[in-house]
Design brief:
single chain; mainly alpha; 14 helices; about 0% strand
């Protein structure tokens, strides 16, 4: 029997999807602050979504064209419509619902609710049999418990504040906040928009896994989604901002930098990373890392921007990490299931030498 040799390279290959998803959440953390500064400066969120994905598509196009020339399958009408719907869900609807809900809720409430995407995705994946659940298997039970524990951590961060943690030093960076407006976090309209946003993102993640089976070229799929999403968002923005043509004008300021960062990192690189991890590990694996962004934002806001940090956020973050670890441990059991399935198929096809067709 061949003995496994553990090396840094082996560990890197084994945990590469985990590493890139953590780095993706770091990228989303900086995206949050840069885009928020741009919106505080007066930029229209809907124009931002459009310009961001125009740039993302333009940046990703040469990589997709040359690197996936032999891998890219023929684009049929049915596949084109599938990518169109994928773009509509993940870019046009989800992102614009996200920014629309900010008008009726607070960023804290929205960020906390955003973390429920992992639980919603897990439920949909189980219903569609994308996720394997066997209550006799400890790893399957771990996936269920991990999802519930993560959700409990999210609710703790949302519902329980606790005492304020004392700032250790003065803020290193000052970000001008928008003037406070009347926000009703419990408003029906804001809640419906937020729930719709989370559900749309969940469906988008699930649909990615299905589309990748028929179109396994992640760079090309990212490019198509960005260009289609940009066109769809442009039409939506023209309707919403029809009385404000000046919203399309971008100066040499934070608005331009937010579009550049959002296009290259947020719209291009991070979507590609999600597609790659979705193909390797599935949609639930990708979404369970979302709470890390909220944790990173809270930490950065506390240590760099001098914002308030509550004890409830620390406790909730600890619970989320516990649930995340438990769920990932449960997900490792999927490898054993995949291996057994491959062995059975080999025997069935006569490759194992036991059963000839």
């Amino acid at each position: 029997m061949e003995k496994k040799v553990f090396s840094p390279l082996h560990v890197y290959k084994e945990f590469k999807p985990h590493l890139v998803m953590v780095l993706a959440q770091v990228g989303y953390t900086f995206l949050y602050f840069i885009s928020e500064s741009s919106f505080n400066h007066g930029m229209s969120p809907y124009v931002y979504v459009t310009y961001r994905h125009v740039l993302a598509g333009a940046v990703m196009f040469p990589f997709a064209y040359f690197l996936e020339r032999s891998l890219r399958p023929k684009l049929t009408l049915v596949l084109f419509m599938e990518i169109f719907v994928l773009s509509l869900l993940g870019i046009t609807m989800a992102l614009n619902l996200y920014f629309a809900s900010l008008k009726y809720t607070s960023p804290t409430f929205l960020a906390s609710m955003f973390n429920t995407i992992a639980s919603i995705t897990f439920i949909i994946a189980v219903a569609l049999r994308i996720e394997v659940i066997d209550l006799r298997n400890p790893r399957s039970i771990a996936k269920i418990l991990g999802t519930l524990i993560s959700l409990a951590g999210v609710l703790t961060m949302t519902l329980y504040k606790g005492p304020v943690m004392r700032n250790l030093w003065h803020p290193l960076i000052h970000i001008i906040q928008r003037k406070s407006s009347s926000i009703n976090e419990s408003g029906l309209k804001g809640s419906l928009l937020t729930i719709s946003c989370c559900a749309t993102f969940s469906i988008w993640y699930i649909m990615q896994a299905s589309t990748l089976k028929r179109y396994p070229a992640q760079l090309s799929l990212t490019t198509w989604m960005c260009f289609m999403g940009a066109i769809q968002s442009a039409v939506f923005t023209l309707i919403v901002e029809h009385n404000n043509t000046s919203a399309w004008i971008i100066g040499l300021n934070i608005d331009l930098w937010s579009i550049i960062y959002g296009g290259i990192v947020g719209g291009g690189l991070l979507i590609y990373i999600q597609l790659w991890c979705t193909e390797k590990k599935g949609p639930v694996f990708v979404t369970v890392f979302n709470p890390l962004c909220t944790i990173f934002v809270a930490i950065l806001a506390y240590f760099v921007l001098g914002e308030k940090l509550y004890l409830g956020s620390i406790i909730g973050a600890f619970i989320v990490i516990m649930g995340l670890y438990l769920l990932l441990w449960g997900k490792e059991g999927d490898k054993e299931v995949d291996f057994k399935t491959k062995v059975k198929l080999q025997y069935k096809n006569g490759e194992g030498g036991l059963e000839e067709c």
